[in-house]
Q: What sequence folds into this?
């Protein structure tokens, strides 16, 4: 790489630019790979047709995994979207890109087709993980679905006798050790004696079957889907017999299938209601002090109670107390916090304590909003 | 650049392009090229370094990029302003002919300049994302080895992606 010049003609910062007249540089495969890893899903699905080697590259598990990792770790949420659950006047799902919400003057939400879509069939988004979304149609028909590639898979029915007074709480996550997607169904029934009995079943995508595991341990799960973080699903659960406003965080390890408890911090004084959620890769709790503010707590280091941190406190402005902030959908490097307030999307800037309200059309009234990353991950165990 | 530093002698490197043009660059610029930084750290950097895979046209651009980044980062401006400044510079810098972009990407890889490699890859990705299959084949010099029937079958699976 080095040589000693006899008399080098020094040219500072090249005033005299030479134009290459040769053929276009052909990029080596490893650089082409790097470019493909930065493409959106739709382009990748199209470019499968470029050649046989491009097809096998784009379909390979390694590529899918790396692309997912890149997209997930993009600090600006370039490849993340928000999915809105709409129940009124008809059941529906719509989505839009986070990037557009943040940077475009106007964003149009897209009405999407999902499995078994019907205006009168209820649709419930259980959760999202690696670009896959688990939805429940009419509460008990479950689907794994990748909206970015428009593919879905129906889960086999689970044979639990559904009597009166039953309710089901689900959860969806990924077991990294076995690289398997799992869905958990907690079937709860109030017995004659007044207590609550549960039966818990777990579905594995690899085996495409349900299996019963140990009954729910740690009280009565509240009626919300499990939150997936750190290889575990988490439910808020009422510790006593009746429902009180205080709840515990009960976890289920998807690999070892054992229950645990996540200790909560001392949230401080005052009357508040709280909800459990996930922010990025961390378990999060939002404490809502009606009409005044909402505090967002994040468990920065899993299993370490002292690592609970209040990451942001968002004031309510001119609010009659009708709506409550959601757990933030994302927090950006520039200090912007994207979250829902009732049926609006709000961007709060924690650096200068300012608000802005991104304009979004085709969504008036939504019940819930979740984020998901665009990915090539197939909802079928054996690839596509 | 302050006058006090100009008094002390700055370490300078001479970079020679594939076509024999020699560029004089300061150390703060040269170390942005990971290949050169490694040479310096390994104490085997001579003041004269030949870069066989980069033409003078591209090397001039690479040096312009590294110089701007080195100056912005060492300047006294706040991180946010420096960030904004780099963003504006990067955007303008990427406003070049497609072939230049491909060569810049390849040079960034060869010279191991991570930020420039990321920038060019991202720019190329957004440039090609809406292109047709035929355009992409041409751009990357890829031969279509599908039979008509095969290609049709692959295309059919995600037909919506072509709309």
A:
């Amino acid at each position: 790489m080095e040589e000693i010049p006899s008399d080098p003609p020094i040219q500072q910062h090249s005033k005299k630019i030479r134009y290459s007249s040769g053929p276009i540089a052909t990029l080596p495969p490893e650089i082409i790979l790097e470019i493909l890893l930065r493409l959106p899903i739709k382009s990748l699905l199209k470019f499968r047709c470029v050649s046989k080697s491009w097809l096998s590259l784009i379909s390979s598990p390694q590529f899918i995994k790396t692309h997912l990792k890149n997209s997930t770790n993009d600090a600006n949420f370039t490849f993340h979207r928000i999915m809105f659950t709409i129940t009124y006047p008809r059941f529906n799902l719509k989505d839009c890109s986070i990037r557009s919400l943040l940077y475009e003057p106007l964003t149009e939400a897209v009405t999407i087709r999902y499995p078994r879509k019907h205006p009168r069939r209820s649709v419930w988004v259980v959760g999202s993980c690696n670009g896959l979304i688990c939805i429940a149609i009419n509460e008990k028909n479950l689907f794994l679905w990748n909206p970015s590639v428009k593919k879905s898979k129906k889960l086999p029915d689970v044979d639990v006798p559904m009597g009166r007074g039953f309710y089901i709480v689900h959860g969806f996550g990924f077991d990294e050790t076995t690289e398997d997607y799992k869905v958990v169904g907690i079937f709860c029934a109030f017995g004659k004696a007044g207590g609550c009995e549960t039966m818990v079943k777990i579905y594995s995508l690899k085996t495409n079957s349900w299996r019963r595991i140990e009954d729910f341990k740690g009280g009565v799960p509240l009626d919300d889907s499990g939150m997936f973080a750190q290889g575990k699903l988490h439910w808020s659960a009422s510790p006593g017999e009746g429902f009180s406003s205080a709840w515990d965080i009960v976890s289920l390890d998807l690999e070892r299938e054992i229950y645990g408890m996540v200790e909560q911090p001392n949230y401080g004084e005052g009357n508040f209601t709280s909800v459990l959620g996930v922010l990025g890769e961390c378990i999060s709790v939002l404490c809502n002090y009606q009409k005044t503010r909402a505090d967002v707590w994040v468990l920065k280091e899993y299993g370490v109670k002292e690592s609970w941190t209040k990451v942001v406190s968002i004031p309510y402005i001119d609010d009659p107390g009708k709506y409550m902030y959601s757990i933030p959908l994302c927090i950006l490097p520039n200090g912007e916090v994207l979250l829902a307030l009732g049926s609006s999307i709000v961007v709060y800037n924690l650096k200068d304590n300012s608000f802005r309200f991104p304009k979004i059309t085709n969504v008036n009234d939504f019940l819930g909003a979740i984020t998901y990353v665009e990915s090539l991950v197939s909802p079928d165990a054996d690839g596509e | 650049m302050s006058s006090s530093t100009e008094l002390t002698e700055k370490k300078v490197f001479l970079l020679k392009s594939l076509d024999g043009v020699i560029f004089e660059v300061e150390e703060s610029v040269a170390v942005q090229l990971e290949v050169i930084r490694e040479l310096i750290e390994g104490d085997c950097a001579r003041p004269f370094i030949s870069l066989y895979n980069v033409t003078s046209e591209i090397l001039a651009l690479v040096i312009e990029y590294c110089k701007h980044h080195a100056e912005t980062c060492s300047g006294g401006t706040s991180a946010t302003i420096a960030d904004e400044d780099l963003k504006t510079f990067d955007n303008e810098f990427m406003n070049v002919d497609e072939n230049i972009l491909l060569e810049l990407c390849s040079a960034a890889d060869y010279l191991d300049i991570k930020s420039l490699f990321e920038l060019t890859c991202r720019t190329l990705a957004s440039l090609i994302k809406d292109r047709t299959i035929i355009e992409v084949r041409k751009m990357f010099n890829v031969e279509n080895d599908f039979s008509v029937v095969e290609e049709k079958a692959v295309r059919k699976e995600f037909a919506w992606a072509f709309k």
